[in-house]
Amino acid sequence: MTKQIYSVIKGTGSYVPPRIVKNEDFLQNEFYAPSGERMNKPTKVIIEKLKEITEIDQRRHVDDQYVSSDIAAFAAEKAIQSAGIDKESLDYIIVAHNFGDVSKETGRTDILPSLASKVKHQLKVENPFCVAYDLLFGCPGWVQALIQADLYIKTGEAKRVLVIGAETLSRVSDPHDVDSMIYSDGAGAAVVEAKESDAPVGIISHISRTDTLDNAFLLSMGPSYNKELDPRHQYLKMNGRKVYEYALHTVPATVKKCLEKAQVDITEVKKVLIHQANAKMDYAILARLFKLYGLREVPEYTMPMTIAKLGNNSVATVPVLFDMLMEKEIENHRLKSGDHFVFTSVGAGMNINAIVYRMP
């Protein structure tokens, strides 16, 4: 059999901020509805309801002196060390994010130069032909960057790519919006490289989609729900109910299509690594996926979860989850050689993507 080029993940790294923000830390917040009216339920009840739905008990926020490019570089350094490679051998550095560097002092977004250029500078990579650029694709950004890395490698354009996802959602969340308790900060990275093999290995298939006709603005920027705040200050806003409905309707079918493309049956999939957006939503997506195959039961330990302790840090959730899995930090979840698993994510755009991966 003729050997083919595949893209395999050589090393991973992540940065989880040490600052823990617990649910009780929000007890002093005043929450408002989108209408601008003060929510009449006690804050404690609101917090308990949010935990019941999302499972979030705590989340991580970056220290004041750091921005997304800083923590992206921290995760990248670990990934390079994990891969055991010379950083000068990187052909591309791709950084997925959505809000750039948002400083604690100004609350403004800074994307000049690009975060990827800042990361390359912090890593002290001298090679001028290591191309650094950013990718904006909502929460599925890191998975999409991984797909781009695979395309570069498959075409021979690159042999080694550093793919990073970093976000500081705590800097763009409205303290008067209940959803602010969902968001968190973090960064994850992976070194992807070419591997010759006579059998499929690494990234076997991938799929992406963008639904804008009716769903473009399910996540967007807008003023605080507290009308007394300056409306010029914009915050992340989400139509949670519609996002849930959209994800449940489209993610399972998209993943199934990706599995069919890879000629892999759901019964061969050991893990589904899904964007940590909302525990209730993720469980429902997984159940719907197995139902599409006529299966009523989801095998135990199929879907590792980090949202309870880390919250939703957007593009960082999937790479952080994968790094923790590789570092054996998630109880009862392991991957071995030959195992198939799925990366999948959904987010602003609205965008969805999936990758079927076979462990080397």
List its salient traits.
8 helices, 4-stranded mixed beta sheet, 28% helix, 360 residues, globular
Description:
With 360 residues, this protein is an alpha+beta fold. The protein has eight helices and 15 strands. It is globular and about 65 Å long. The two termini are 18 Å apart.
- Helicity range of the residues? 25-40%
Quote the average pLDDT: 96
Low-confidence stretches: none
Q: Main beta sheet, described? A: 5 strands, mixed
Would you count the extended β strands for me? 15
Reading side by side through the largest sheet, how are the strands ordered? 1-9-8-4-7
Following the backbone from N to C, one meets helices and strands in this order, namely EEHEHEEEHEHEEEEEHEHHHEE
Quickly give the structural class.
alpha+beta
Strand fraction band?
A: 25-35%
Number of helices: 8
Shape: globular
Report the span from N to C terminus.
Answer: 18 Å
**Computed Rg:** 20 Å
